[in-house]
UniProtKB/TrEMBL annotation:
SUPFAM superfamilies: P-loop containing nucleoside triphosphate hydrolases. The keyword DNA-binding applies. Keywords: DNA-binding. It holds the Pfam family LytTR. This is LytTR family transcriptional regulator DNA-binding domain-containing protein. Residues 199-305 form the HTH LytTR-type domain. It comes from Diplocloster agilis.
Amino acid sequence: MASIIQESIENLMNNLDTCGCLHIECNQEIMEELFLYIKEYMRGRNAAYITLQEKGYERDTVRHYLRFFHELFGETRDLDTVMDAFGLLPLSRRRMRDLKPGECMKTQLARISMQQAEFCFLEEPLLNLDEDGTRRVLHWMEEQCGNGVRFITAHSSLRHTLLMPGTAFYYENGAFHQAEHEEEDSESLEEGTFEVLKIPAKSGSRVLLFDPKDIDYVESSNKNNYISVRGELFLVQRTMDQLEENLKKSGFFRCHRSYLVNLQKVERFEKWTKNSYVLVLNNQDNSQIPLSKGRLAELKETFQW
């Protein structure tokens, strides 16, 4: 099925009812345009916003900061319940100015969770979050979507975009392209001996040759393909189909249209929400790689679960 393309933010917003929630991978300039457009679009409605510039009152503790909004919004849950939902109880006495970026994001999400807004715009909600924080945020978002709340999120990472509950888009060449979540005709991992091969990738003016066992995953983003090695991304010139063909006998699995993952690096499979599946790697970043729902059966067969 052909990918949906929206030529402008206006067209994108006109399809909000059809898409339910919108999640967009884009650069910082587009994020800012999106935020300004949505603020005007939502004028007069009960809407909540979080941007990376949101730091709160720097002298407040986390508990004091959230208590203010707890009273302001007339939240019926007790404050500890709200804080615990986002893993904030250990940070109760921490000053807002001393929070790490991921801790600050969780605090701001706890704040808007009490607002009972009909619509939420979130900029980079998963950036700098650890695995536990990511799971908590996705669980909360899915729960809110079930209650009719609409989300629009903006991300610099396609991985984060694809983990969101709703419809994912990426910005490229002046338009928003829908990211396909599943691809049906994927070849199964073949049995047999591993091939000896090297994958060439660019690093500045150099071409590096990587052993497949050193590659954590392959990511396709904005028509470019990258291999991830020890936390660093390197551009490769081969297509995803070519890379899949090259790497499948080295233990790689096409877990998503935009991702190939080294099965030897997979530590565990996680179902975070009803429609959100990830493969958590045992690399230095514990990378969380999206798993398409349509690929789940093939993965189970591969691992003989």
